[in-house]
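Section 5.1 Outputs to date
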Amino acid sequence: MPEGLRLPFDLDIHTAVQTTLVIVGVLIVLFVWRGIVAIRNAQRLRFFRMRRDRMMRGWRLLIFAIILIPIAYLLNRRVEPLIYSYFPPTATVTLTPTITLTPTISLTPTISLTPTITLTPLVSNTPTITPTPYVPDTVEARFDSTITPNPDSVFSTLTFTDGLDALYRPLKEGTIFQNPIDHMYAVFSYDGMIRGSQWTALWYRNGELVHFETLPWNGDTGGLGYTDWQPRPEEWLPGLYEVQIFVGLTWKVSGTFTVEGEAPTPAPTDTPTKTPIPSRTPTLTRTPRPTGTPTPPRPTRPPYISPTPTLSRTPWPTSNATPTLKPTPWPTLTRTPVTPTITAQPTRTRTPTPAS
């Protein structure tokens, strides 16, 4: 509790708010009861002025009771978070009680029997030594703060949850969580921190470091804080998880929680198959053959057409005399060259026939 709100008796903010809420509730009940009684008594009075005053007093008490109802609601819901926003809570150091052993009187036997056979246990239970948490060298190498941390800073017990509200308070606390899990928080209250000093949070699964965060402190000297981890859902393997908080190299607090159930299997993705590029096969280049000199074509002779002799007839002489027979010379054959003509064949034209 801040020094400015220190009360002469041991009373924290939460207890003060709850006490005020109880007082307001008692006043509401008292005003309602007194108002109803006043209204009933007013109806029995004979004088108008006294009856009116008594009625006004009763209704005034009922109105006060109605006004106190929303005040009680605000006290229960809003006042305590509002006070914490201005006066952050300080961590409460829990004292571990020590057990004091009371010595008992042991009776000494008068006759001691010497055993003949000494039994040697096959398995001896050797107590294991719990090592003090420390910061690994790989994480320490990431320190970048030059401010000396406060050795007297305190942290409360870690509270594990999978969700926070607007005031960084756990929505559902627990120590056993079932897969699938998306986001996990370790919430704590603190006091005596120095801004800029190095702090570290280590997350272990079955003794193996799986996640860490180390950075200069950027919060207030006291209040609520958290460390979180949000890997892929398939990385939340079942097992025992432990979170350790350090300020500088000094261990402050640790907490454990358990994850049960198998982690979800990631959906398979299509992996493109690389097709090997075929190697080029050398092709044989053909050497072109030498081209010869073309021989001019021989001239084609036109077909020989033998001339057809033309016979010319000599007409008979017409005379009244008696014809005298004279020898007629043979006709002279005259060779006339005939030039052949090539007649083009007629082109056939197809005439469309109308369909009947």
